[in-house]
Amino acid sequence: MISLVVVAHSRPLARAALDLARQMVEDGAGPHVEIAAGLDEHTLGTDAAAVAEAIDRAHTASGGDGVLVLLDLGSAVLSAEMALELLDPGVAAAVRLSPAPLVEGLVAALVTAAAGADLASVERDSRAALRPKAEHLGTEDPTGGGPRTPGLPDAMSVELPVTGEHGLHARPAARLVSRVGAYAPATRVVVRNLTSGRGPVDALSVSAVATLDAQQGHVLLAEAQGPRAQEVLAALRDLADEGFGDLPVPAEPLADVATPVPAVSAEPGVAGSGLEAAVGPAVLLETVPDPHGVSAEDPRAEAARLAAAVEQALGQLLELGERAGRNLGEGEAEVFTAHATLLRDPEIVRTAQRLMDAGSSAAAAWSDAVTAVASAFEELADPYQRERAQDVRSVGERVLRLLLGVKEPEVLDDGVLVVDELYPALAISLDASRVHGVVTRVGGATGHGVLIAAARGIPVLTGVGARADVPAGTVIAFDARSGELAVDPGPQVRAAFEEMVEARRAEREAALHNAHLPALTTDRVRIRVKANVSSVSVARLAAGLGADGSGLVRTEAVFAQWRQAPTVEEQTEVYRALADVFDPHQVCIRTWDAGGDKPLAFIDRPTEANPFLGARGVRTFTSDPGLLLDQLEAVCRAAGGRSMRLLFPMVSTPADLRMALDLLGRAARRAGLPDPPEGLEVGIMVEVPAAALRIGHLARGLDFVSIGSNDLVQYVMAAERGNPALAPWSDHLEPAVLGLIRHVADHVPEGVPVGLCGAMAGDPDLAGLLVGLGVDELSTMAAGVPIVKQRLRSGSVAQFRELAEQALSAADAAEVRALLERSRQHLLQG
Amino acid sequence: MGSVRDDVADLTAFQSWIAETSAELDEHAGHLTELDRAIGDGDHGTNMARGFGRCAELAGEEQFPSIDAYLKKVGMTLVSTVGGASGPLYGTFFLRFAGPLAATDDAGVHALAQGLRAGVDGIVARGKAEVGDKTMYDTFAPALEAFDAAAVAGSPVAECLRACAEAADSGRDSTEPLVARKGRASYLGERSAGHLDPGASSAALLLRAAARTLA
Question: In angstroms, rounded to a whole number, what is the distance separating the alpha carbons of residues A121 and A222?
Fold first, then answer.
C-alpha cells in the first residue's frame, strides 16, 4: 500500500486534517501517514530536511509502493520540492507531490489508498477532490484558460494521461481530434486538462485542444455524449495508452525500417543535383498582400469562396503529404497531415464565419482567424508547442494564396530560390527539377529545413544576409563547399562558376556510374572506400552508393534517440542488420563514444570543465563497465559467421587497451563463447597524439587501426572542434597533422592496415594525398563515397606519394592547399 | 572584520559574514516583520533572525574542514530553522553557493562570482521567480550583475562586493511600486504595491554584510 505525507505550516493543523480524514476509514486501516508540519508544536513554518525524513520513513513503510505528499501552501511547496532533491534519487522517483487542496486532497487520498489503489490513481483522485465542491457551488475552476465550451450534462468520461515528452503538442492533438472526428457529429466530446484546470474545449478543434497546454505528466478528462460515447472514449483511452502516437522510444533503428533515400530518388523533382553548388536566376517567393483591402461581397458568397479555398488547400496538402511520404519518409509527410487537420479545425472556421457575418471578406476573415489561433499557440508554455504557431501561419497562408490568387511555393520558376529561412514544409515541397539551389538570408546549416534539403541533395547556402536582397531574375551563383556567393556576376565569374558546376556534374555522373566498381589507382592498387554510418537506413544508402563496407558505425548516434540503454538483444539485432546490409563487405562497430559534444541520455556523465579532454570514449567505462560489456556482448553475438570489426575509441595507453580487451573476453564468455569470435577483427581509433606517437607498441597484436582525423586535428592543434572562431587553427591540412598521419603509417606493426575516418576522408581533393601518406582505406559519409572512389582512380600510388612528400615539406596549410589545387587540375586533365 | 589575505576570503571571513548578517537581522527584525505584516504573514523578521542566529552559533560549536562544508551546513540549518518560504530559498542559496567553492580554501573574485551565480540560480530554480515579481530575486539579480561587471573589469574583491551591495539596495528599492506575483503577498494583488518586499530587504542586508566581511 502506498504511504502519505502531510506537509503543512502548522502541526496542529496537519493533525486535525488527518483526524478528519481518518474518520473515513475503519480504525487501524488505511495507509501509513507521516506528518512534517511546523518547526515545532507551536512555531509555524516548514522544514525541508524534516520533510525529507518524513518521506524517507513513509517510503520504507510503503515497501516501495510509493509516497503521495499533500501540501498546504507557499513554503510547504518549496520545502517539499527541496526535500525531493535532498533524498536519494531512487526514493524521490517513487514520490509525487499533489497539487490538491490539503483537506479535500487528504480525505480523497486516504480513502483511495486504503482501498489499495496505486500511486497514480491515488494522486488522480486527490487532484479531482475539489470537483464536487466546485460543482455544488456552481463555480468553474478559476485556473482555466483558453477557448472554452460548456461541459456536457450526463456525459460519460475517461481520464487520459499525457506521457509524451512534449505533451499534447500539435501532432498528438491532431490525432486526438481525428479519432473524435470519426464519431462526430452525432457523438460530441469535450476535453479538459485536470492538472492545469484549463478547458473544457471542443475536442474537434485542434487549436483549442492544443491550448489546453497539456504537458508531460498532466491528466486530461474527456467527456462524451451521444450514441457512441462509450466507443469514442475507449478509442481515446487506447490512443492515450499509445502516448497519442508520440512515444519517442525506440524510434529508429530496428532493422526493418525502410526509409526512402531522396538524394538518389528516381522520382522526378525529388533528388537535387548533389553538387553543392548552383547558378541561376534568383527566384523569390511571392508575398501575400494584406487581405484587409479586399472588398467583401455578401457573407454567403464570401463563405462559399472560403469553403472552396479550404477544400482546394486540403487537396494540395493531401497530395503533398502523400508524395512526401513516398519519397522522403513518413516523418516528413506528417507535417502536411498536421496542416490538413488544422484546416478542418472548427475553431478557426467558426471565427472566420463570425467575421464574415460581420462584413469581412473571406480573405480578411481567414487571415484574422488564423492570426488569433497562431497567437494562442505562441502564448503556450512549452517552446516546442510555441513553434507550432509556424504551422498555423503556414497553412493559413496557403489558403490566403488561393483566395488572393498568389502562386504557391511549389510552383516556382526555374532558378535559385532566395528565402529568409528555409522552413521544413517548404524544404519538403520544393520541386528539385526547378529549384537548382536555395540561398537563405538567416538561419544556420543545421536547421531542420536545411537538413531536409541536404538529404535531398539540393544545394543550400545559408545565412548570407542582405547580400541576397536582389530583384527576381538577378543571376546568383554559389558554392556551398567554399561558401562563395556571387550576385549578378560578370561574364567571366559566371563562366567560371558554370564551368565548375559542369565539371562537378561530369565527375559526379562518372562517379555514380562507376560507384559499384572497386577504386583502383592507375597502377592497379585497390583502396577500400567505406562509409561512416549512424543508422540502418544510412547503411542502406551507403551500400547503394557502392561503399566497400562501413569503416565506422557510430553506435552512440545509432541509439542517440533512446532514453534507456538498448538491451543486448536489441543491439545484436541492429549490428546484425548493419552487417547484412554490407555483406560481403566488412562493417566496423565502434563502441560507445559518449562524451565531448555527444551526450547519450542513458550514460551518466559528470559535468566537466573540458569535456573534450575528459572521460570520453573507453575512458567513460573504467569504473562502471556495464554498458560497454553489454555492447561487447552484443557484438560477440552478432559477429558469429559475419565479417565484422570492433573499434575502441579514445585509447591512449596500453592500460586502456588492456581494459578494453579484458572486457571483450568477459563479454565473449557472457555470450557463451570461450573467446571472442574468430572472424571478429579488433582495432583502435588513433585520435590522441600519444597513441599516434606510440602506435608501434600500442597496435601490436591488433588487426587494424583507424585514424579519427577530426579529433586528431583538435588534439594536435589544441583547437576545439565546433568552435568557428578557432577555424584557422583547426585546419586538417596543417603539415603537423599530415606528419603525424605519416608517422602512424610508417610505424604501425607490419601487416596492420591503417584506415582513416573523419572529414578528411570525405574531401575528394584529399583522397590521393592520404593514400600517399600511407593510409590503406578511407571511410567517409555515404554521399561522398562515389566521388572519393572516382578521384582515387585518377592517379597512381607513386604520384600520390610524391604529392604527399611535397605536402609534408610545405610551410603551412595554405601552401598544402595550393599544392592540392594544382594537383587536382593536373589529375583531372590527365 | 574577516581575515583577508591577498584579495581572497577564507573560512573565517565567511563565518564573519554569517555573524554579521545575523547581527543585522537582529537589529532589523522589527522592520522586516513590519514590512511583512503589510503584505504577508508578518513573520519574516523573526523567521530570519531565528535562522541566521542559529547559523551564527555554528562556528563556535564545530570545526569546519572547508568553506564549502561550512556553507552547506549554513544552508541546511536555514532550511530547518527559518520556517517560511525564505528557508528553502536562502537554504538553497547557500547550498548552491558552496558548490563552486568545493576545491578552494581562499575564495577570490572568480570563485565568489561563481558561488554567487550558483546561489542565485538556485533561488530562481527553487522559487521560479522573475525580475519584477516583487521577490528577493529583485535584489539578487541586479546584485549579481553588478558583481560580475566589476569582476570582468578586473576590480578587487572589495570593490566587486561594494558594487554588488549598492545594486542590491537599488534592487530592493525597486520592489516598492511593484505588484507581487509570487508568494503569500500575491494574494493581495494590487494592494501589495507601495511596500518594500521583505525578502528583497533581507537579501540586501545579507549582501551588505558580505561587503563588510568578505573583503
Answer: 17
> Which residue among A39, A48, A73 sits closest to B88, beta carbon to beta carbon?
A48
Q: Could you tell me the sign of the dihedral formed by the alpha carbons of A745, A747, A748, A751, in that order?
A: positive
The class that CATH gives domain A3-136 is alpha beta
CA distances from B56 to A482, B52, B79, B123 (A): 65, 6, 14, 22
Q: To which CATH superfamily is domain A514-829 assigned?
A: Phosphoenolpyruvate-binding domains (3.20.20.60)
Q: What is the pLDDT of residue A146?
A: 38
Residue range(s) defining the domain that contains residue B67: 4-213
Res A624 pLDDT > 80: yes
At the second CATH level, the architecture of A291-406 is Orthogonal Bundle (1.10)
Residues of B in contact with A39 (CB under 8 A): 80-81, 83
Contacts of A43 in chain B (CB under 8 A): 83
What is the Cα–Cα distance from A51 to A528, expressed in whole angstroms? 64
What cell was used for A314? 486540403
CATH code for the domain of B103: 1.25.40.340
A448 is catalytic: yes
Classify domain A262-285+410-511 at the CATH topology level: Glucose Oxidase; domain 1 (3.50.30)
Buried b (16+ CB within 10 A) or exposed e, A412-435: beebbbbbebbbbbbbbbbebebb
Spell out the residues 6+ positions from residue A822 whose beta carbon is closer than 8 angstroms to its own.
none
| pLDDT value at residue A351 | 86
Sort out which chain B residues have CB atoms less than 8 A from A81's CB and list them. 88, 126
Note the pLDDT of residue A632: 97
Backbone phi and psi for residue A168, each to the nearest 5 degrees, phi listed first: -95, 70
| Nearest beta carbon to residue B88 from set A9, A73, A79 | A79
Question: How far, in Å, CA of A598 to CA of A65, rounded?
Answer: 36
Considering only the top CATH level, what class is A143-245?
alpha beta
Mean pLDDT of A485-495: 93
Q: For A80, which residue in chain B has the nearest alpha carbon?
A: B88
Q: Does B84 touch chain A (CB under 8 A)?
A: yes
3-state secondary structure of A503: helix
Selected for mutation to probe chain B from A39, A44, A607, A608 (highest B CB count within 10 Å) is A39
Nearest partner of B161 among B114, B109, B111, B117, judged by Cα = B109
Residues of A in contact with B83 (CB under 8 A): 9, 39, 43-47, 75
Give per-residue pLDDT as tens, A39-78.
888 888 899 999 999 999 999 999 889 999 999 987 898 8
**pLDDT tens digits along A463-482:** 888 898 999 999 999 998 77
List of residues 6+ apart from B27 with CB closer than 8 A: none
Which residue from A39, A74, A81 is facing B81, i.e. has the nearest CB? A39
Write the CB contacts of A290 (distance below 8 Å, at least 6 apart in sequence): none
Split into its structural domains, chain B has a count of 1
Among the listed residues A780, A783, A786, the one whose alpha carbon sits nearest the alpha carbon of residue A755: A780
Name the residue among A43, A50, A74 with its Cβ closest to that of B184: A74
Could you read off the pLDDT of A582-614 as tens digits, one per residue?
999 999 999 999 876 666 778 877 778 888 888
Among chain B residues, CA nearest to A86? B76
Identical fold between A143-245 and A291-406 = no
B92 and chain A: CB distance < 8 Å anywhere?
yes
Q: Mean pLDDT in chain A?
A: 86
Whether residue A636 lies in the annotated active site: no
Query: CB distance A44–B81 less than 8 Å?
Result: no
**pLDDT tens digit sequence for A567-580:** 999 999 999 999 99
* Domain limits, chain A: 3-136, 143-245, 262-285+410-511, 291-406, 514-829
Rounded to whole angstroms, the Cα distance separating A387 from A374 reads 10
Interchain pair A45, B126: CB under 8 A: no
Residue length, chain A?
A: 830
